Amino acid sequence: MKQITIPLPDDFHIHLRQGDALREYAKTASLQFGRVLAMPNTVPPLTTPEQLKKYREEILDATSATAPHFEVYLTFKLNKNYSENELTELRKQGAIAAKYYPFGVTTNSQDGIKNIEDLYPTISLLEKLNFVLCLHGEEPNAFCLDREKEFLKHLSKLAKEFPNLRIVLEHISSAEAAEAVLNLPATVAATITVHHLILTLDDIIGDSLMPHHFCKPLPKFPKDRDAVRAVAFSGNPKFFLGTDSAPHTKEKKECCCGAAGVYSAPVAIPILITEFENAGKLELLENFVAGFGADFYGLPRQTKKITYIKENQKIPETVDGSVPLYAGTEILYSPL
Amino acid sequence: MKQITIPLPDDFHIHLRQGDALREYAKTASLQFGRVLAMPNTVPPLTTPEQLKKYREEILDATSATAPHFEVYLTFKLNKNYSENELTELRKQGAIAAKYYPFGVTTNSQDGIKNIEDLYPTISLLEKLNFVLCLHGEEPNAFCLDREKEFLKHLSKLAKEFPNLRIVLEHISSAEAAEAVLNLPATVAATITVHHLILTLDDIIGDSLMPHHFCKPLPKFPKDRDAVRAVAFSGNPKFFLGTDSAPHTKEKKECCCGAAGVYSAPVAIPILITEFENAGKLELLENFVAGFGADFYGLPRQTKKITYIKENQKIPETVDGSVPLYAGTEILYSPL
After folding, report:
1. Closest Cα in chain B, distance from residue A255 (Å)
2. pLDDT of residue A250
3. Contact A201 B145 (CB under 8 A)
4. pLDDT for residue A120
């Protein structure tokens, strides 16, 4: 295929961080996506209407010159219970989803709640107020490769207890998670990252140690990657793109205790074009990157378009001080 | 226990590297062990009598002042077939074992032989000349967590084809490998490292990424660690210490593509005392570190003694420019 025109993609799971780096990460994201849903595990975490207002303004300020069409939707962190009034105020500042991180499972989750049932009062309000609940679905104390699988009992229970609540199991990485989401009601969806479509443990610890492929949840066995690919390439509206693009500086990755996260925003869409093309499913790409997610979140579908042409693109060794996915290699598509 | 006196330990699997670093690593090893079997995957690899002679001299020169009793036994690399005359000459220079690395499985193994059967002519001579065959038992093209398991078919075949050849499956890391060695004839033994007794994947990729715990073969599931512990603490003479202490500079570990290896030599014996003590098997420590290995290799048992006392020892952040196991933490025993 020589070129492809698709709606400007949505990314329903992205980390834009805070401080000076936020401007760079937001600008890079705004050149790849029309809309993003920004995660709240910043330092400090996003939990108040004032913080959301400021965060949104910073992002739009950083991107308005180069991508005036760029839209950002916000999440807030479920590290405590919220009142109905607080939730209403958060909504006014652009929050469309609440994000739950179990204690200690990933970057900046040391304030996570150990028992999700302690948040049921708030989750009930989320259901009432039509928020989406986004879950980092890993059970903290399980063996690293079992954490997602062990979390699924909580997902099933939430889906049952809150039948009208829309729930997204984020960045699924296992055959068991794909299966669970398939079998649960239509209120339960999943995001899929670019890296969980292409990596297994072999790409982190199989040869040399590759810190830039290290992330949570961990890429796992080939059977798990195959299961994630199967649902991504199935055309099932429960599965859509959330890159979990999670930049850390090179220094924070290449050290004695490297941070978890793959910085995929700069390359996500060109890689997806190739992956869908190689799977013979290019006709399903549009819904995956710019259809099912918007539908699930109740947003209008994107009307702006972007064209990618088949032209090799050399990925720099670093982008915004972070090492992106496929750094130093060539990918096959470039935006026109 | 307040103190323990044991024979000076033997390490039947150690990497001392080459060049300037060799002096430091050898000196450190000589303060922990009475005898070591040095691995041949240096740059260039140890394959000729001249190289072995020089290597041995360098090690003894580095250690004679501080540890005049220190003895080094050598291996050579099976990256080609050798004649009977060559093997005899290698023996004269201190080689007691040949080491087989499959292609590409670990540090400096890019000259490995893809098919071990291509080496059967030499392996037959090893049997005739009473050498030991040491195996890095990993199948190169298998998924990272399956490589050891997939190699076991070669081990079984070797044991059958060469019934008088003594074979050591090095650094076992899986329940399947422990089981296989248990079930094979007495000609087949295994070394066990300190780190495979204590680490699982959780310690490499469970929380932050820990490059200093990254090694080949990979520490695996808790069930695998438990199986390795079970045979180590069983008193079965097939299982003895080979630390696979494998120093790399801090820079080569904390980078974009970190080297595999745990530097355990500086702390191996104190940690083992604690592990055997906690398992209630302290009476089996002596045979594990200074008995079964010598017996298997046909060497006299060590007669010199060393005493460890219960006195906390703070492990430095680096030793010889490399980050040792348990760096920055306290261990419970120190040599008197």
Report:
1. 5
2. 97
3. yes
4. 98
Domain tally for chain B?
1
A336 part of a folded domain: no
A201 touches chain B (CB under 8 A): yes
Contact A258 B209 (CB under 8 A): yes
Confidence of residue B106 (pLDDT cuts 50, 70, 90): confident
Arithmetic mean of pLDDT over chain B: 97
Is B244 among the residues known to form the active site? yes
Per-residue pLDDT tens for B231-262? 999 999 999 999 999 999 999 999 999 999 99
On the question of pLDDT at B288 being above 90, the answer is yes
**Would an 8 Å CB–CB cutoff place A246 in contact with chain B?**
no
**Residue A296 belongs to domain with CATH number:** 3.20.20.140
Is A103 near chain B, with CB under 8 Å? no
- Residues A65-107 pLDDT 10s: 999 999 999 999 999 999 999 999 999 999 999 999 999 888 8
Spot the catalytic one: B11, B224, B244, B320.
B244
Annotate A271-335 with DSSP letters as a single string: HHHHHHHHTT-GGGHHHHHHTHHHHHHTPPPP--EEEEEEEEEEPPS-BTTB-BTTTTSEEEEEE
Q: Would you say residue B334 lies in a domain?
A: no
Q: CA-to-CA distance for A315 and A14, rounded, in angstroms?
A: 20
Place B100 in a pLDDT band, splitting at 50, 70 and 90.
Answer: very high
Q: Which amino acid is at B88?
A: T
Q: Do B258 and A200 touch (CB under 8 A)?
A: no
Has residue B144 got a pLDDT over 90? yes
Contact A143 B256 (CB under 8 A): no
- Closest-CA residue of A relative to B212 is A256
Residues of chain A with pLDDT under 50: none
B142 touches chain A (CB under 8 A): no
The neighbour count for residue B231, using CB atoms within 10 Å, is 20
Query: What would the two tokens of residue B189 be?
Result: 């033994």
CB neighbours of B297 closer than 8 A, spacing ≥ 6? B12, B37, B73, B96, B97, B132, B166
Instruction: Give the HSE-up count for residue A201: Cα atoms under 13 Å, Cβ half-sphere.
Output: 23
Chain A CB within 8 Å of residue B255 CB: yes
Cα–Cα distance for residue pair B266/A80, rounded to 1 Å? 46
Q: Which of A104, A205, A218 sits opposite B214 (nearest CB)?
A: A205
Q: Does any domain span residue B332?
A: no
pLDDT at B105: 87
This model of the complex carries an ipTM of: 0.96
**Which tokens in the block code for residue B77?**
């690399």
Q: Is residue A328 part of a domain?
A: no
A156: domain range?
Answer: 9-307
